[in-house]
Amino acid sequence: MENNTTENNTLNGKLHLQSNGNVILKNEGAIPTSNESSSTNNSTIEQNHPDSDMKTWEEVSISVPWGLVCGKWWGPRNKQPIIAIHGWQDNAGTFDRLIPLLTPKHPVLCIDLPGHGKSSKYPQGMHYYLFWDGISLIRRIVRKHQWKNVILLGHSLGGALAFMYAACFPNEVDKYISIDIPGPSVRCLKKQAAITGHSIDKFLDYEELPESKIPSYTYNEVIELVLHAYDGSVDKQGVEILMKRGMNPVPQHLDREGYAFARDLRLKVSGLGMFSKEQVLSYAERIKCKVLNIRAEPGMKFDVYDEIIDHIKTSAEVVIMHKVPGTHHIHLVNPERIYKFINEFLEM
To answer: What is the model's pLDDT at position 53?
Structure first.
């Protein structure tokens, strides 16, 4: 992408340093609970960037029953973080351009959802039920670290998960920020019934695909393929950021060079465990916290967007909505258009 301003050129230069690992940490015990501060004395840290707190990040991992949930911790380690959740088939890198613009008052933990980025895939035989799984994962992390008055930040699927968590645990969320989605995707019940069989067969096809048959590409082929798949929602520089966690070298035992996608192929089957409109509206009415919704225009098509927001307003303490010109990935492509809204909201 061609940068349009000096500010963006400077920012992107800093992010290049960060995303190459200016801080490396793998020490689950360093994640603070609500009652204690973190300590990194036993951690391996490589600090190359002397800039302010929100300009540096640390690689973290959290143990879960099926392996690890990995992520990037931005800012100081001695405070409870905002939990940031990416969209479907993206990863924690989706916030790399936004987080350095946010207030340093709140550290941010950006997680890779299961099967995404560097996080462990589910075992063979297990389906991904994207919305329901995500609620449980957030809850698992919150309970593990005894965090209170949680703040959530989500894009697309991540925004829907913030919505659902706030609805399921209405007295435990202080506020959440949702980028270009009002809640879970709504499915017509007849359409859902019609695609279930096909979805199950596709899931099994992906599960049975031998490792030797998984496609591999050159670096440039990956970038161009993903850029085309996003269909204008993400620029080339954004794709390169996402692919730092989104692809891996082909395993040596396959005796070929190139890269393969890091995410679990089974994630492509996303049609199971979806919601009806009535379900989404019922959850919306349970939300009590402060809500910031940023809708990109043209963004992502969502027919009942305003209706869901109206139902949230019936019970939420505060609902603020901003419509901003941009693509569905506005936080990654044009973070300068939205960060002030988020900072103002965080100060409320």
So the answer is: 62
What does the block give as tokens for 334?
A: 């044009």
Number of neighbours of residue 3 by Cβ within 10 angstroms: 14
Tell me: cis bond preceding 298? Omega within 30 of 0 counts: yes
Confidence band of 255 (pLDDT split at 50, 70, 90): confident
Q: Hey, which residues does 249 pair with through a beta bridge?
A: 259
Does 136 participate in catalysis according to the annotation? no
Per-chain mean pLDDT for the chain: 86
CA distance 165 to 149: 12
For residue 105, the Cα-to-chain-centroid distance in whole angstroms is: 21
What are the boundaries of each domain within the chain?
17-33+42-188+269-346
Which pair of tokens denotes residue 66? 């099926």
33: confidence class by pLDDT, cuts 50, 70, 90: low
CA distance 171 to 150: 10
Catalytic residue among 156, 178, 185, 233, which?
Answer: 156
Distances (CA, A) of 136 to 114, 129, 161, 163, 175: 11, 11, 10, 13, 18
**What 3-state class would DSSP assign to 89?**
coil
**Strand 57-64 vs strand 67-74: parallel, antiparallel, or unpaired?**
antiparallel
Segments of 66-165 assigned E as strands: 67-74, 82-85, 108-111, 150-155
- Which residues partner with 84 through β-bridges? 110, 153
- What is the structure's pLDDT at 270? 79
Closest CA to 178 of 151, 158, 207, 198: 158
Q: Which CATH number fits domain 17-33+42-188+269-346: 1.10.3470.10, 3.40.50.10790, 3.40.50.2000, 3.40.50.1820?
A: 3.40.50.1820
Predicted TM-score (pTM) of the model is 0.85
